[in-house]
Amino acid sequence: MDKFIGAIGEKIFTQSGIIALLYPIFHKGAMTKILYLVTEDWFFVSHFLPMARAAREAGFEVMVAARVRNHAGRLAAEGLRVIPLDIERKSLGVIEGLRNVMRTYRIVRAERPDIVHCIALRPIVLGGLAARLAGARALVLAPTGLGQLWTERGLSVRLARSIIRFTIARLRGPRTRFLFENVDDPGEFRLDPAGPEVTIVGGAGVDPADFPAEPEPPAPPVKIAVVSRMIAAKGIADAVEAARRARAHGAPVELHLFGAPDPSNRDTISEDVLRRWSSEPGIVWHGRTENVARVWREHHVALLLSYYREGLPRTLLEAAASGRPIVTTDAPGCRELVRHRQEGLLVPPRDIEAAAGALVELAGDPALRKRLGMAGSERVRERFTEDAVKQAVGRLYRSLVAS
Predict the structure, then answer these.
(1) 16 burial class (0-12, 13-18, 19+ CB within 10 angstroms)?
(2) Does residue 210 lie within any of the structural domains?
(3) Per-residue pLDDT at 97
(4) Where in 87-197 does DSSP place strands (E)?
(5) Dihedrals φ, ψ of 201, to 5°?
(6) For the domain that residue 251 is a member of, what is the CATH number?
(7) Is residue 203 left, alpha or beta, with left meaning phi > 0 and alpha meaning psi from -120 to 50?
(8) Residue-level pLDDT at 22
(9) Radius of gyration of the chain measured on its C-alpha atoms
(10) Domain shared by 57 and 115, yes or no
(11) Over the stretch 208-252, which tens digit does the pLDDT of each residue have?
């Protein structure tokens, strides 16, 4: 399969390499530019503002090309220029993919950025190809996680994985860098996580001032919170079933779900299902929240039973910074932060009985909750702050411009 894809793509990438070599390295007298390619404006706001701030503080003019929903004003307030780029995440059609390549190509040709930073797999494949064809001088390719393509089975997803691996291999070069959120993901592309091409950052990072570690609220009940998009692969149904079983074992727990369905994701959970769950004793769906810090002040335990191939979930960083113990899956991304019985309890993916047992144990042991929560808060402050992310990304950008 890789040979077949290679035969199709070899001429394209050979041509793009010539274009990149002939393209001038600097605009004399122009401000250095960086262009972020990302699917959604809300995704950029929630996860990547520290990177944009690092670029701005390094002297870059910062542009964000994304599908614009409700966050253009927030991006503009940060001093970023927004360029509409309508990419439908759930579409896998070839024609739509080619349209997206051409849309991105036109943006890169018009803006002439010094660095194109592609965030998530679809912008990496489509945007990275378009940027190289348009003569982009330097690329930063940042898978934020490998998502459902690395957990689903079937011919179509195997083909998609082959295309992604082939494209990333062809985009490698002296002025291409890779930004990952955990040490597991680079190996999927035959990259050394300790090599010079790769930078590992602590996800989006968090500002500890926004999520201070505070004593837990009174108990019982012990309130379990899931803060996530309401999609199946985030383990939402598993969390509901684990809470049911924990309650059946006599644990005084309540499950509180915070988040909205994602219509652009084929795996989204409908509002009807969420409302039906919320009608059960001990289960409440609250919808989307704008005050995550308050969620952690008012809850005792963070739960994320994701079998999605995560980068490093921001929700876990925020919960840990707030001093809350975590129950999550022993899977890439989640275990980057949480070590078993140090910052939380790790359970095998899709093992609902193990998750229920972890909830029962934490519900009955306030001293264990406190020990795990304080350890998580310290770990975030040592390794996973916004400032640490900004410093790492700032060094990366400066090295590319200097080279």
Answers:
(1) buried
(2) no
(3) 72
(4) 115-119, 139-142, 176-180
(5) -120, 160
(6) 3.40.50.2000
(7) left
(8) 35
(9) 22
(10) yes
(11) 999 999 999 999 999 999 999 999 999 999 999 999 999 999 999
Say if residues 43 and 31 touch (Cβ distance below 8 Å).
no
In a shared domain, residues 236 and 102: no
Task: Evaluate if residue 90 carries a pLDDT over 70.
Answer: no
Contact (CB, 8 A) for 173 and 151: no
The number of domains in the chain is: 2
DSSP 135: T
User: pLDDT higher for 70 or 191?
Assistant: 191
Matching residue, tokens 């999520």 = 211
- What span, in angstroms and rounded, lies between the C-alpha atoms of 278 and 8? 51
Do residues 120 and 248 share a domain? no
Same domain, 57 and 142: yes
* Per-residue pLDDT at 18 exceeds 70: no
What are the C-alpha distances in Å from 112 to residues 75, 116, 268, 397?
Answer: 21, 9, 37, 16
How high is the pLDDT of residue 92?
54
| Tokens found for residue 135 | 């003569």
Model pLDDT, residue 156: 86
CA 215 to chain centre: 29
Is the pLDDT at 400 greater than 50? The verdict is yes
* Cα 331 to Cα 335: distance, rounded to the nearest angstrom: 6
Cα–Cα nearest to 36, from 54, 18, 17: 54
Summary mean pLDDT of the chain: 90
Provide the Cα torsion 151, 157, 162, 163; round to 10°. Answer: -120
Co-location of 91 and 127 in the same domain: yes
pLDDT digits (tens, 9 = 90+) for 122-139: 999 989 999 999 989 999
The distance from CA 217 to its chain's CA centroid, rounded to whole angstroms, is 29
Domain that holds residue 61: 2-203+386-402
Q: Which of 47, 152, 46, 116 is nearest to 389 (CA)?
A: 47
Q: With 60 as the cut, is the pLDDT of residue 177 above it?
A: yes
* Domain-embedded: residue 212: no
Are 365 and 393 in the same domain?
A: no
Three-state SS at 233? helix
For residue 261, CA distances in Å to 7, 35, 341 come to 40, 29, 32
